[in-house]
């Protein structure tokens, strides 16, 4: 049995310790906003925050997050989410970033983590932080614009 | 003990096309609209209330007492914006406020939700969603509006002609009465359907042509959108399938002992397409699959490498193929030319690699079969579920889910995802609902690729540097042979999808020959965003750049001289050139190139600016795009589809190829089948032609021009012509 905090709530899970966190979140804990895309940390669709930092949950064994605090897209969409989370989601909506939308939970988790660490990222900072998140619909033009817009909103 | 079921359950072509395709005379009224959704009961001439008390004037819209307007979308939403677009058209004629509008997937039904460009068959493809729905949904919206107006007239005792509707409010100015839609629903549901309705003058449009927010943005921004992979049913099991390592190989024997010993694995079953491991969750199923020992019968399999196949294509190309188009006297045109240019082009197999891995959920019971999947060809998926389940059509339901991309992959004529899932559900005796998940490796290595092609092309210029001869030969597999689409799209042995984009060459050239060699290869192939134009546009537009240079002419001027009879091509070409600053001087290492192409009745020109650094690295800095897709329904969605189509096409030409070694696919995941990432995405500027022509599609047409535009820009920067894809095959160091 493994215990960790998910979106602010302590959870005990039964999964085998080698099970990737992604499948525990999706199947055992029933939060399906975090997506499976490649299983090899190559696409970022499964991005969640571990103690505030973005990680790829498809290659993170649940046994390794014992005691950690995990935040998913559902966590950053809840009331009381951080200023960065709210700004990112508002920008995503106002620019209609999404197309198929499948990768967008991961994109948003990476963008929120970026802005929490660096509230005024340059294009190069955005490339570095977002390069691990693939979007086959190629919504990248709008992802970049939305991150800049969110940064502006946060400035106030 | 393995359960076996046979492949006998595959539907025939006829069945595929005829399923659900009864005449439906009772449903067709003056408006030519199916009256109501499949499950909603009676079919008299009266408008109707649904069981839930909503008003369902026809099969495309439901209006609830809470004022909400729900559009039933017959086309899948997989990113292209179909739900938003279809809703815009209907809401326009209904005069609904956008805030009250939502969309949901219509139930699968070939008769009611027929794609009017193909029918009778429900499905999405060929960038046809808006084009085939435009008049239909305008009528559907206008009919619903007429009934609400009539209901208000009756309630208020005033003439219907004096009633206006604006942004969801029904008003009678003289009496000062007004109402939302919801309060009129009960009365409207009892009224007879009008025999005809009047459509708006387009100058009065308020939603069509304006920016409306996408209906799916809020949920997709919060992880709430439901894809097939997110479906959870009580007691559901998860399955993965071990498929043959070579295309055409079959299971010889299976030792499932170790797999069954994996904790959580419940069943190992053989199905026509491989061996399925069923478990309590994905991880156990996947571990179980890793533990399987399977001996494969490779006797009938494709064992050639892609290099070998290409070498055979090159041999074939030396001989004339089947003629797809002939104008004038092509041989004489070239023989009499002052200058003849010649080139060859090579195109690899391409995987679609949508972000959501392929998946399907099935719940099979003795008297019912429910299927949940991102269904792109509902009629085929439905027929497949009926055939394999062995149930009656009325016992089978297909639910169309949002899909995490497709790019053609989910429009599989033999419904591979559904066939496997129903086969597995049947093999486990329907004891539990089952979700089949493909891993990324299954997807990349699973075939259904854009075919490999080899092109040869020759052009002749006369003494005045005018193009007088054009011979274009294409060698490659047919996408449609052996599918239900064959009888419509393979004419005189020519698969139209092999030659489209070459065959409809718009340039005024007196002598033209397009011919085709259709090859037999055991690799399953499929349409890939923009289909034939993914390779034909590259050959035509990259080669034309060479010809223009040989003629000593500017590439834009050279094209325009030959486009006098094709004003829409000419207009987008001029617009893209002008907006890109065509003719400007660029610094060392930078280049600009342009291409124009028509696909699916939309016209797109793209000008690309590139930088090639000293290490040979190519960066596409900017793409300026001009698009004419008829009347723009959702300008911002059109812009998004151009951006996305450009990114998708660019990733493919820069990096992507599926290669075979001894018949085995060499690539497996995103480390060696390399997707475009954010740092490679160019700035994109989109200009939409203001047009009153009938709307056409935008999902695919943005993709074809980007390859040749970038190729021409790279030539402009380096002097190197790239004639085999992807670009990553070529070393541009020091150019």
Features:
heterodimer; A: about 160 residues; five-stranded mixed beta sheet; 6 helices; about 15% strand; B: about 725 residues; alpha+beta; seven-stranded mixed beta sheet; 19 helices; about 25% strand; globular
Task: Describe this structure as you would to a colleague.
- The complex is a heterodimer of chains A (156) and B (735).
- With 156 residues, chain A is of the alpha+beta class.
- In chain A, 40% of the residues lie in helices and 13% in strands.
- Chain A has helices at 21-28, 73-77, 83-94, 104-117, 123-130, 140-155, and strands spanning 2-6, 9-13, 47-50, 53-56, 69-71.
- A 5-stranded mixed sheet of chain A has the order 2-1-5-3-4, with helices on both faces.
- Chain A starts with a strand and ends with a helix.
- By secondary structure, chain B is of the alpha+beta class.
- Chain B has a 7-stranded mixed sheet with strand order 11-12-9-19-16-17-18, with helices on both faces.
- In chain B, helix 2 (82-94) packs parallel to helix 3 and helix 10 (378-389) packs parallel to helix 11 (416-427).
- Chain B is globular and about 80 Å long.
- The chains are: A alpha+beta (156), B alpha+beta (735).
- Chains A and B meet through helix 1, helix 2, helix 3, helix 4 and helix 5 of A and helix 5 and helix 18 of B.
């Amino acid at each position: 049995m493994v215990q960790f905090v998910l979106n602010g709530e302590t959870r005990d899970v039964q999964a085998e310790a080698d099970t990737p966190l992604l499948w525990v979140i999706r199947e055992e804990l029933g939060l399906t906003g975090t997506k499976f895309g490649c299983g090899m940390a190559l696409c970022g669709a499964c991005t969640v925050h571990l103690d505030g930092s973005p990680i790829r949950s498809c290659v993170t064994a649940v046994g390794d997050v014992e005691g950690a605090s995990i935040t998913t897209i559902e966590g950053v969409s809840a009331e009381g989410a951080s200023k960065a989370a709210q700004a990112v989601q508002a920008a995503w909506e106002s620019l209609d970033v999404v197309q198929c939308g499948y990768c967008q939970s991961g994109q948003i988790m990476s963008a929120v983590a970026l802005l929490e660490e660096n509230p005024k990222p340059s294009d190069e900072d955005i490339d570095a932080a977002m390069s691990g998140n693939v979007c086959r619909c190629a919504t990248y033009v709008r992802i970049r614009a939305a991150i800049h817009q969110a940064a502006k909103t946060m400035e106030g | 003990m393995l359960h076996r079921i046979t492949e006998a359950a595959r539907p025939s072509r006829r069945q595929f096309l005829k399923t659900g395709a009864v005449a439906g005379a009772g449903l067709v009224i003056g408006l030519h609209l199916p009256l109501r959704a499949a499950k909603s009961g009676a079919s008299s001439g009266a408008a109707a209330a649904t069981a839930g008390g909503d008003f369902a004037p026809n099969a495309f819209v439901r209006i609830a007492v809470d004022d909400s307007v729900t559009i039933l979308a017959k086309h899948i939403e997989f990113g292209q914006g179909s739900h938003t677009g279809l809703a815009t058209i209907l809401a326009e004629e209904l005069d609904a406020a956008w805030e009250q509008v939502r969309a949901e997937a219509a139930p699968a039904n070939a008769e009611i939700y027929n794609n009017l460009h193909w029918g009778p068959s429900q499905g999405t493809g060929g960038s046809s969603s808006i084009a085939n729905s435009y008049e239909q949904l305008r009528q559907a919206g206008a009919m619903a509006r007429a009934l609400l107006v009539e209901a208000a007239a009756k309630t208020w005792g005033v003439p219907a002609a004096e009633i206006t509707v604006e942004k969801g409010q029904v008003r009678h100015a003289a009496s000062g009465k007004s109402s939302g839609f919801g309060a009129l629903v009960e009365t409207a549901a009892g009224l007879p359907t009008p025999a005809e309705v009047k459509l708006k003058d387009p100058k009065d449009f308020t939603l069509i042509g304006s920016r409306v927010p996408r209906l799916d943005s809020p949920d997709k921004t919060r992880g709430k959108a439901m894809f097939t992979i997110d479906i959870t049913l009580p007691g559901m099991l998860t399955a993965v399938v071990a498929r043959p390592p070579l295309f055409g190989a079959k299971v010889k024997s299976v030792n499932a002992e170790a797999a069954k010993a994996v904790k959580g694995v419940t069943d190992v079953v053989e199905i026509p397409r491989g061996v399925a491991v069923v478990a309590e969750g994905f991880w156990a199923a996947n571990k179980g699959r890793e533990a399987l020992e399977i001996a494969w019968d490779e006797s009938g399999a494709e064992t050639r490498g892609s290099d070998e196949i290409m070498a055979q294509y090159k041999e074939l190309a030396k001989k004339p193929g089947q003629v797809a188009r002939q104008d004038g006297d092509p041989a004489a045109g070239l023989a009499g030319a002052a200058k003849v240019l010649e080139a060859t082009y090579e195109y690899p197999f391409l995987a679609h690699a949508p972000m959501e891995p392929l998946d399907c959920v099935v719940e099979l019971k003795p008297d019912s079969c429910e299927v949940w999947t991102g269904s792109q060809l509902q009629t085929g998926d439905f027929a497949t579920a009926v055939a394999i389940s062995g149930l009656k059509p009325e016992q089978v339901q297909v639910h169309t889910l949002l899909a995490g991309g497709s790019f053609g992959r989910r429009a599989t004529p033999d419904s591979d995802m559904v066939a496997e899932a129903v086969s597995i559900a049947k093999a486990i005796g329907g004891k539990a609902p089952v979700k089949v998940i493909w891993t990324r490796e299954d997807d990349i290595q699973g075939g259904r690729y854009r075919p490999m092609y080899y092109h040869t092309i020759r052009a002749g210029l006369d003494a005045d540097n005018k193009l007088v001869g054009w011979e274009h030969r294409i060698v490659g597999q047919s996408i449609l042979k052996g599918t239900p689409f064959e009888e419509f799209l393979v004419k005189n042995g020519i698969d139209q999808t092999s030659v489209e984009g070459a065959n409809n060459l718009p340039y005024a050239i007196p002598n033209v020959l397009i011919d085709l060699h259709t090859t037999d290869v055991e690799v399953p192939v499929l349409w890939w965003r923009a289909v034939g134009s993914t390779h034909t546009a590259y050959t035509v537009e990259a080669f034309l750049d060479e010809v223009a240079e040989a003629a000593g002419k500017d590439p834009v001027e050279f094209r325009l001289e030959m486009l006098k009879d094709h004003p829409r091509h000419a207009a987008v070409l001029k617009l893209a050139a002008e907006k890109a600053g065509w003719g400007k001087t660029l610094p060392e290492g930078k280049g600009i190139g342009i291409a124009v192409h028509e696909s699916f009745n939309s016209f797109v020109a793209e000008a690309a600016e590139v930088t090639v650094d000293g290490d040979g690295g190519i960066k596409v800095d900017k793409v300026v795009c001009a698009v004419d897709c008829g009347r723009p329904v959702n300008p911002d969605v059109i812009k998004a589809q151009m951006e996305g189509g450009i990114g998708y096409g660019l990733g493919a030409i820069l990096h992507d190829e599926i290669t075979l070694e001894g018949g085995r696919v060499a690539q497996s995941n995103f480390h060696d089948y390399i997707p475009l990432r954010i740092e490679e995405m160019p700035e994109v500027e989109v200009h939409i032609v203001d047009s009153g022509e009938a709307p056409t599609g935008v999902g695919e047409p943005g993709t074809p021009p980007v390859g040749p535009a970038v190729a021409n820009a790279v030539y402009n920067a380096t002097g190197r012509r790239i004639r085999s894809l992807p670009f990553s095959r070529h070393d541009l160091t020091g150019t």
